[in-house]
Design a protein that fits this description.
- The protein contains three helices and no strands.
- With about 130 residues, it is mainly α.
- It has one domain.
- The radius of gyration is 30 Å and the shape is rod-shaped.
- The protein starts with 7 loop residues before the first helix and ends with a helix.
Length: about 130
């Protein structure tokens, strides 16, 4: 038998070390994923609460604005009042829709977890070459 060939005990120790490292890496990645899930849940809950509050206040403001414009222009032209309100509301809806699309495009969930998994894959690929 060759003097440089590893013994069965050395191979078992090496396998055990590899298994422990793999479990440690997997545990770290799962913990990172859980932390990011909690952050996303908090962000989503905060966004929902803020959106509901903003929507409620915007609704009250919209009622007041509608009433004001209607009363101001009713004597001159009721159709002009309705046209102005239609343009204002349609413009606001268009701006908010565009902002929502921009927000959805820029939202990257689990970016840190995915980045760490990419780094792990690159490290493994480099170690086997």
């Amino acid at each position: 038998m060759d003097a440089n060939s590893p013994t069965l005990g050395q191979m078992m120790d090496a396998s055990r070390r590899i298994a422990h490292r793999s479990l440690d890496i997997g545990t770290n990645r799962i913990e990172l994923l859980v932390v990011e899930l909690q952050e996303e849940r908090q962000r989503l809950l905060c966004s929902i609460v803020l959106a509901l509050a903003a929507a409620g206040l915007a609704l009250l403001g919209g009622f007041a604005f509608t009433l004001g414009v209607t009363l101001m222009f009713w004597e001159r032209s009721p159709l002009l009042a309705l046209g102005i309100l239609t343009l204002v509301y349609a413009g606001g809806a268009t701006l908010l829709g565009a902002r929502l699309v921009r927000l959805q495009k820029g939202w990257h969930m689990f970016a840190a977890t995915l980045d760490q998994l990419r780094k792990d894959r690159e490290c493994l690929e480099n170690s086997f070459q």
